[in-house]
């Protein structure tokens, strides 16, 4: 989820007179699955920098399977319809990452569009962005990969790059997850007293 979407969700919630305190009224289950997913991704991160390579089997494998507890968490909390969006986005990302060897393809022309190719390639050579691989558009399930650039060209052409909001390239799954999280934040901020029987 992009930082822009997170802040936009919070601002909309405050405009609608919501409060972060209301999140305590949400009935969310199985938080241990989120901790497990975080642990798996942290372990992949540590091993990547210890082994000095993300091409080894273990690092992409750990990153890929970290999606499983996240998907299970959304299933455990499917009593909120927003979780169905979140689950769908996670599954789309899981599919494209798993079929591409544990890495998300990121479309080179999209990086060029947001003027970030040089920075991205340089960071990759230094060991960064180990969860990604550059794509020319011919990878399996490319239509689910990161190829949607942000911000659009008219913003890039009219605003100094140094004051732009964070530039990024998204996948369809990212956008669907962002919508799910946005709607869930709205629910959490506006709910007063959870009366649903769960």
Describe this protein with a few key phrases.
198 residues; two-stranded antiparallel sheet; 9 helices
Explain the overall architecture.
- By secondary structure, this protein is mainly α.
- It has one domain.
- It has 9 helices and 4 strands; from the N terminus they run αααααβααββαβα.
- It has helices at residues 3-15, 31-51, 58-65, 67-76, 82-99, 108-113, 117-125, 153-158, 172-190; strands spanning 104-107, 132-135, 148-150, 168-170.
- It has a two-stranded parallel sheet with strand order 1-2. Strands 3-4 form a two-stranded antiparallel sheet.
- Helix 4 runs antiparallel to helix 5 and helix 5 runs antiparallel to helix 9 (172-190).
- The longest helix has 21 residues, at 31-51.
- The protein is globular.
- The model has no long low-confidence stretch (mean pLDDT 87).
Order of helices and strands: HHHHHEHHEEHEH
Identify the overall geometry.
Answer: globular
First and last CA, distance: 27 Å
Largest sheet: 2 strands, parallel
Provide the β-strand percentage band. Answer: 5-15%
How many helices? The count is: 9
State the strand order across the main sheet. Answer: 1-2
- How many E-type strands? 4
Tell me the helix content.
55-70%
Mean pLDDT: 87
**Uncertain stretches of 5 or more adjacent residues:** none
Supply the helix-strand structural class. mainly alpha
Query: How many separate domains make up the residues?
Result: 1
- What Rg do the Cα atoms give? 18 Å
């Amino acid at each position: 989820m992009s930082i822009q979407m997170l802040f936009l969700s919070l601002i909309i919630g405050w405009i609608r007179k919501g409060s972060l305190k209301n999140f305590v009224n949400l009935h969310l289950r199985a938080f241990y699955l989120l901790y497990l997913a975080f642990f798996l991704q942290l372990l992949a991160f540590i091993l990547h920098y210890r082994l000095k390579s993300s091409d080894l089997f273990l690092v992409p494998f750990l990153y890929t399977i970290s999606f499983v507890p996240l998907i299970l968490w959304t299933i455990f909390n499917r009593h909120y319809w927003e979780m169905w969006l979140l689950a769908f986005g996670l599954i789309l990302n899981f599919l494209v990452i798993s079929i591409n060897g544990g890495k998300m393809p990121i479309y080179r022309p999209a990086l060029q569009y947001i003027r970030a190719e040089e920075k991205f390639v340089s960071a990759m050579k230094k060991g960064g962005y180990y969860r990604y691989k550059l794509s020319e558009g011919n990878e399996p399930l490319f239509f689910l990969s990161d190829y949607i650039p942000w911000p659009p060209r008219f913003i890039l052409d009219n605003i100094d790059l140094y004051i732009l909001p964070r530039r990024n390239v998204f996948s369809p799954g990212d956008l669907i997850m962002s919508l799910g999280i946005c709607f869930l934040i709205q629910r959490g901020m506006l709910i007063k007293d959870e009366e649903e029987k769960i």
